[in-house]
Amino acid sequence: MNKSQKSFRPKARVPKGLRDMSAGMVRAEERMLARIREVYERYGFDPLETSAFEYADALGKFLPDEDRPNEGVFSFQDDDEQWLALRYDLTAPLARYVAENYDALPKPFRRYQTGPVWRNEKPGPGRFRQFTQFDADTVAAPGVAADAEMCMMGADCLEALGIPRGSYRIRANNRKVLDGLLERIGIAGEPGSTTYMTVLRAIDKYDRLGRKGVELLLGPGRKDESGDFTKGAGLSPSQITAVVDYVESGVGEGASDRKLVLDGWRNVVGESAIGREGLDELAEMDALFTAAGYGLDRIEFNSWIVRGLGYYTGPVFESDLLFEVKDESGNPVRFGSVGSGGRYDGLVERFKGVKVPATGFSIGVSRLQAALELLGKLDVEDVLAPVVVLTLDAENMAGYQSMVSELRAAGIRAELYLGGSGMKAQLKYADKRGAPIAVIEGEDERMKGEVTLKDLILGSEMSKEIEDNAAWREGQPAQVAVPRARLVEEVMAMLARHRSVRGHHG
């Protein structure tokens, strides 16, 4: 081999729009999921797992980001030349599952599912190409009581995660109200048409872009801060005014009363039959919210909630966080929506050829986790690192293995040092791991039938107070010799002291 020729070394980097998660964040997410799961289970939903891949034609073309390659999904061609795609949400795979197993399922069918989803979209702050969702759906329930239940369950989930009432709002609307408005102002086109979806996505951005930004998206189009241009819906000035006036009719002070909002929307839809049907459904949901004690401090009606996905057919809803916090740089951050859902009566019909009503709610776990972290509500790392048993004598590995096995059998997290370094480096390793205790048995300890327990947490605290190395060596703080036979009991006692201190300070 030519000495001047360098071997290829790939650059170690996480792909754009993706991220790695450390142990603490993984555990925090697991605790979040456990709390959400408790709520879903309490409402009578059962778990389901579906494949990460689906045939592309089964997923359908519902994503809002149509300008991206592959229309917003990551796809590839199988060896039989069929197109597969990573799922972009958990709802489309559910529709396929229901259609495939329809006759065997109880109806209504209630399931929850959590897992990663993938979208081939432009990444940004807090916007990843892979993220975790946690969904609950009810299939084959035609009445809006199922939609109302989703809104109430969404509120219960946020409160279970420690977000106080008043710091969030479940905001609901109905696609049929928008259909009625568009019909009244003379915009032709079936739901799902290009003009319809462009109007929908423009309204969906109202909370981020405000009136001026939405007007541009409804008209000629808008150029964002990066210079990217989004083509508009091409509506006339009067049509734009009617749409934006409708959006602003359901926000602000008037939005604090659900019945007042509905009264305002009756003028918006006029005599449109589909629009009035949507208002009647929302009125029924309002009665259910009121009966269950879900007041305006938890659920409101809001005109800009339309959802960007093309498969929604009726009530739609979002869970918005209202508080503002500061990031690491001191900049204000408002998270907005961390969960959403709605009715999708046509999704299973794509497979079955008959209408199968369905509704669901999806929590964006990754986004909600980031919000809880900044709010200080995230249940972060409180797991003690493992006790580390040092391996100072290669010929005594069986003895060290016996120690670590005894500790594990007693329910103690324990790790056998498996590197090739000496005692000093092993202790440094244990420190870096955050180990509470290092178990040391050298030749001297073994001759006496003892082991040395080094309390690394206490030692670290005491070392801050002792500046004189001689005093440190003389005192040998946080280190105790105990009989080998009492290893488990003494380790448990030392750990119990740490837990009580942590509990006292926590």
TrEMBL record:
InterPro entries listed in its UniProt record: aa-tRNA-synth_II (IPR006195), aa-tRNA-synth_II/BPL/LPL (IPR045864), Anticodon-bd (IPR004154), Anticodon-bd_dom_sf (IPR036621), His-tRNA-ligase (IPR015807), HisRS-like_core (IPR041715), HisRS/HisZ (IPR004516), HisRS_anticodon (IPR033656)
UniProt cross-references to SUPFAM superfamilies, sorted A to Z: Class II aaRS ABD-related, Class II aaRS and biotin synthetases
Binding annotation for L-histidine: 89-91, 119, 133, 137, 307, 311-312
Cross-referenced Pfam families: HGTP_anticodon, tRNA-synt_His
E.C. number(s) listed in UniProt: 6.1.1.21
Keywords of this entry: Aminoacyl-tRNA synthetase, ATP-binding, Cytoplasm, Ligase, Nucleotide-binding, Protein biosynthesis
Chief location category: cytoplasm
A Gene Ontology biological process term: histidyl-tRNA aminoacylation
Reaction(s) catalysed by this chain's protein: tRNA(His) + L-histidine + ATP = L-histidyl-tRNA(His) + AMP + diphosphate + H(+)
Highest taxon of the lineage: Bacteria
Gene Ontology CC entries for this record: cytoplasm
Keyword Ribonucleoprotein in record: no
Molecular function GO terms recorded: ATP binding; histidine-tRNA ligase activity
Limits of the Aminoacyl-transfer RNA synthetases class-II family profile domain: 1-386
Location of this chain's protein in the cell: Cytoplasm
Subunit-level organization: Homodimer.
Similarity annotation: Belongs to the class-II aminoacyl-tRNA synthetase family.
Protein name: Histidine--tRNA ligase
